């Protein structure tokens, strides 16, 4: 393929660029971008370059002009590759968040999220749920939002697990169910969510949704702080008092036990 590209094959350049653009290592993006900018000039093969070119230019962080152009390429991509779930999702995010100067359009965002969800994108299911919860571009329907969040959670979407936990803990549009809320926070926490650990820690510390456990509650909140959760430090400051030497040892042991069997907490 490399030899064909060297000899001038535009198709080879496109294949190489798409491979480099989809690799986890973003250090290959500059070369992919250079190749794609050649390919997009070819009338016959330009359509295949729109998605990877748009994705790189949207996320490479080179400036507002590149972001604007990247979004335009992504919009073209969904015209020619309507079955591209990631392109549909990203265009939905562009309409939702006004990326690259795109005029915000909740209805258009919802339509693209819906298209991506039908193609199996769990992220899109979560955004559909948020739209229904907030009434953004679609009729407000918290009960339907909860169904969407659960569908996204079944596909491993940790933020959807958090959404479910918050709704059930607070009774936001649905009957409150603290025990189920605790379970959903625990599911998110088990996947490394600092936010999930914060929610679980608070419920354990206060005895919400089940038995009170001051040691585990404090341990999980401290892990959430270490994981970078924005609110965990504030919550910990409001809840915690001084610990005895024995309790300090118990909390530290609980944290160590958690880290042996779970991912390192993170806020993303």
What's the rounded overall pLDDT mean?
95
User: How much of the residues is beta strand, in percent?
Assistant: under 5%
Q: Which class of secondary structure composition applies to the elements?
A: mainly alpha
Q: What is the level-2 CATH architecture name of the largest domain? A: Alpha Horseshoe
| Tally of helical segments | 15
Task: Name the CATH superfamily classification of the largest domain.
Answer: Tetratricopeptide repeat domain
Radius of gyration: 23 Å
Biggest beta-sheet profile: none
The CATH class of the largest domain: Mainly Alpha
N-to-C span: 37 Å
Low-confidence stretches are none
**How many beta-strand elements?**
0
CATH topology of the largest domain: Serine Threonine Protein Phosphatase 5, Tetratricopeptide repeat
Q: Please estimate the helix content.
A: over 70%
Reading the helices and strands in chain order gives: HHHHHHHHHHHHHHH
Choose one word for the global shape: elongated
- In total, the number of domains comes to 3
What would a concise description of this structure say?
With 268 residues, the protein is mostly helical. It has 15 helices and no strands.
């Amino acid at each position: 393929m490399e030899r064909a590209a060297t000899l001038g094959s535009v198709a080879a350049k496109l294949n190489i660029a798409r491979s480099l653009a989809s690799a986890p290592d973003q250090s290959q993006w500059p070369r992919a971008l250079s190749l794609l900018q050649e390919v997009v000039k070819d009338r016959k093969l330009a359509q295949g370059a729109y998605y990877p070119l748009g994705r790189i230019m949207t996320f490479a962080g080179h400036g507002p002009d590149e972001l604007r152009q990247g979004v335009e390429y992504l919009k073209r991509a969904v015209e020619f590759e309507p079955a591209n779930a990631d392109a549909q999702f990203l265009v939905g995010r562009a309409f939702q968040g006004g990326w690259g100067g795109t005029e915000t359009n909740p209805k258009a965002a919802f339509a693209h999220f819906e298209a991506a969800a039908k193609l199996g994108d769990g992220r899109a299911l979560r955004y559909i749920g948020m739209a229904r919860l907030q009434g953004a571009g679609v009729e407000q329907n918290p009960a339907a939002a909860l169904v969407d969040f659960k569908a996204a959670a079944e596909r491993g979407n940790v933020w959807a697990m958090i959404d479910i936990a918050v709704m059930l803990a607070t009774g936001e549009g649905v009957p409150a169910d603290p025990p189920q809320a605790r379970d959903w926070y625990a599911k998110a926490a088990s996947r490394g969510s600092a936010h999930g650990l914060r929610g679980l820690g608070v419920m354990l510390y206060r005895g919400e949704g089940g038995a009170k456990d001051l040691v585990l509650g404090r341990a999980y909140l401290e892990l959430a702080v270490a994981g970078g959760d924005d609110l965990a430090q504030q919550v910990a400051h409001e809840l915690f008092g001084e610990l005895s030497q024995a309790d300090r040892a118990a909390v530290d042991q609980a944290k160590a036990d958690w880290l042996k069997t779970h991912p390192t907490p993170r806020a993303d």
